[in-house]
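cron nightly-structures :: item 1 of 1
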Amino acid sequence: MSVPFDATPFLRLTAAWRLRRLRRLDPAAAQAAVLRRLLARAAATRFGRAHGFARLTGHADFVRAVPLRRYEAMWEEFLKPAFPVLENISWPGRMPFFALSSGTSSGATKHIPVSAEMLRANRAAALETLAWHLANTPGARPLAGPGFMLGGSTALAELAPGVRAGDLSGIAAATIPAFLRPWSWPPTDLALEPDWSRKLARMVAEAPREARILGGTCSWLLLLLERLAQARGGLPFPDLGLLIHGGVAWAPYRARTLALLPPGCDRREVFAASEGFFAVADAGEEAGMRLILDGGVFFEFVPPGELDAPAPRRLTIAQVEPGVDYALVVSTCAGLFGHVVGDVVRFTSLAPPRVVVVGRTAWTLSAFGEHLSGEEIHAALAGIPWREFMVGAEMEGGLGRHRWIIEAAAEALADPAALAALLDARLMAGNDDYRAHREGGQLAPPVVERVPPGRFAAWMEAIGKGGGQHKVPRVVAEPARFAAFRDGLLGRG
């Protein structure tokens, strides 16, 4: 695939303007301005009237008027009654898109509103990613070839006139400006392919060797690169200048991914969610990601232990401290206000404000993008007479997988392989992301190992955590940490 011309010189002009603006940006003032805009835009909506937006003058008023909400509460009270036609519910006009996101306690899928303003904010954040690439990579020519965005199917379901739903990557692809399409890959017919196996096979056969930008979730990117390297007998993209990654932790995939990139290829981690594009790496890999403070998102930071307190501290960008963990709360130009995202972040610097994602507020297993909640894990074990268990993430033969260590009487777990198949089937039935990773071949089948009664208690005692005040770490998403726990429980090493 060839592009009409190298558009990098035009990109450099826009990027230079953006970087000059960022150098002058005052974080606190920028965030205060964002909050004022959001309140003014949503004042006449049902949500805005219910919370007196027209009378609010700043963050202190906002905190008193708008409680923290998780998605489920917002869905039940404001979104569900009018769904799918959200007309002036929490954002003015009709909400045109919903991004489908899996793994909530309310069901397999949640619908995150995506407004036209949010799409513009996301595109501006993508431009900022390219601006930092140009700033850190002299001589880069990212638009001298096509950009390859590895996402899900771009097929969107029409829920009502003017209302569509699907993967966020599909929404982005469907709304990409026409003048940028010649620099974008894959083509429409391939992007619409819903079957991952067929899609992957076609991408391996048809992916443009001259791609300059490659973006996606780490686990899927590695799978694609390895298949391409095998098929092509060398570097998949010899001219690749920029890898954009996010979604799951980079560390487990770093070494194997770097081996498949050409020398000098820049890497930019992004913090993008269905709710918005929050941050992008502006410096080295260890620096963290710089928050986007003047877009369509107002950020609040709450000590994780206070999320369910009657009056949690809701700190602004002007009040946070480096090295402290905060639950991320956002209010957005898609009509979410005081929304608990579920991620826990830690500031690595304040000037400029940069964060790393250090965990989740809920009990989750998502080392590879599978997004299993604690509720789903417990549901999969329904009817199994376990006494204690631990499930964790590990790498095996180049693939991620889950290992379940279950304490039960011998007769209760006579066939661990059959139990593994049962757990696998239940999780695929209840979680769209888990099913996609399993069916796509990125997540290997789970393994179950039985340990005799008393093993967990003995292990906890051996590591100095015996007694009722210490809880077994039942879900361990970090492979290295899980490996140490696994070996201790199973008597290895």
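cron nightly-structures :: done
Residues 8-29+113-290 form one domain.
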